[in-house]
Structures are given as C-alpha cells and as structure tokens.
Amino acid sequence: MTPGVDADGRTAESPAAADDKPVRKRRRPGRRPGTADTRGEILAAARKVFAEKGFDRATVRGIAREAGVDPALVHHYFDTKEGMFIAAMRLPVDPGTVIPAILAGPREEIGERLVRHILAMTADPEAREPVVGLLRTAMVNEQAVAMIREFLTRAVLGRVAEALQIPPIRMEVAFSQMFGVVMMRYILKLEPLASADTEELVEILSPTIQRYLGG
C-alpha cells in the first residue's frame, strides 16, 4: 500500500478526508457562546447595576461587564444609557421623543400639552403599569428613589428647564404636582379624582402648570 493512501485510495489531503475532520464553529464577537437572548441579559444586568449604583454612576462599560458582553454590543442594542434605562425599567416614554413634542408649539400652551400628555399616557393601563410600579417601589426603597431621582433630573427635568430657560425648581414643582395627581388617581384611587374625565382634569390643572413653566 502506498504511504499516505488508505485502502480506498484516499489521501490525507483528499476532499473526502477533509470532510471527516471536525468543523470548528467561529465565535461571534462580543457575546458569550450559548447565549440566545443577549438583549435580555443586557437588560437584566442593567436593572441590577442601576439598582446598585443609581443612574448617574452606572456606566455602559459596567453594565457590559455584568452581562459578560463587549460594550460595543450594548451600544448595538441601545444608543444611550437613557435608552437602556427606559427599556430596563419598561418605561412607556422616551424623553428624547416626548420632550421635543411638548416643547413644540406656543409657549403659552406648554402647560396644557404637558398635562394632556401625562394624563393620556397614564390612562392606558399597559403604559401606566410600569410607572405606577416605580412609584410604589420608590415609596419604600431608598435605592429606587435615588435611581428615579437621578434619571428624572438628568434626562427630563433639567433638559426641559434648560430649554425653557427657567429655574429647575419650577420644573420640579410642575412634575411633582403631576406625579401627585397620578398617585392619587391610580394608587390611592381617591374619588372623584380617580374617575374624573381627562378633559376635566386638563382644564383644572393646565393653568397651574402653565404658571410654573411660563415664567
């Protein structure tokens, strides 16, 4: 028998022999092998890191490390840390989209636009659930309080106050009043507020909110 040739006449370099070799699967960059739901794992890691460190101190790199993925993969799924927070907390609104809509239009109507948006959003049970859940958690959990406070300050209140060129305290008072209405309406279910018509509440609340934001 010729060296390097088997009984069937195949050499070690023949295609048939090559087919018998085990095929190594190339690892996809940026994710652990065997992971089916990378986005879900990133969100789970984000919830943990946000809860432990708060919004300000949490970093994309730290969340990536917790999830066991490359930071570039985190950016692939989420453009910003704000977007990751919104997805992790299941918030129904993105400040990057909502704030420009509220700021657009006559300034003397911004109070009405803000009131109408918050009331319309929380009127939807599916959208309201995560908001009410966060409010309930914040009432008993200091870590949740810090996380929500930092997010609101950086991503919402400060941004709107700067755009309107008003002191931040005016924005904070306006939002605190609206959050109080949401709590009374959907957590304590205080009547007749709980069953009041949205348009009635818009009419009652808009002038006060406008006074806070119009100065």
CATH superfamily of the largest domain: Tetracycline Repressor, domain 2
The tally of domains stands at 2
Structural class: mainly alpha
Percentage of residues in helical conformation: 55-70%
Specify the number of helices.
Answer: 11
Query: Strand tally, please?
Result: 0
Return the CATH topology of the largest domain: Tetracycline Repressor, domain 2
CATH first level of the largest domain: Mainly Alpha
Mean pLDDT level: 79
Oligomer: single chain
Give the termini separation: 98 Å
Question: What value does the Rg take, in angstroms?
Answer: 27 Å
Largest sheet: none
Percent strand equals: under 5%
Q: Give the overall shape.
A: globular
Flag low-confidence runs. Answer: 7-19, 21-34
Element order: H for helix, E for strand: HHHHHHHHHHH
| Shape-level CATH architecture of the largest domain | Orthogonal Bundle
List the helices and strands and how they pair.
Layout: H1 15-19, H2 38-57, H3 60-67, H4 71-77, H5 81-88, H6 95-103, H7 110-123, H8 125-140, H9 142-164, H10 168-186, H11 198-213
Helix pairs in contact: 2-3, 2-5, 2-9, 3-4, 6-9, 7-11, 8-9, 9-10, 10-11
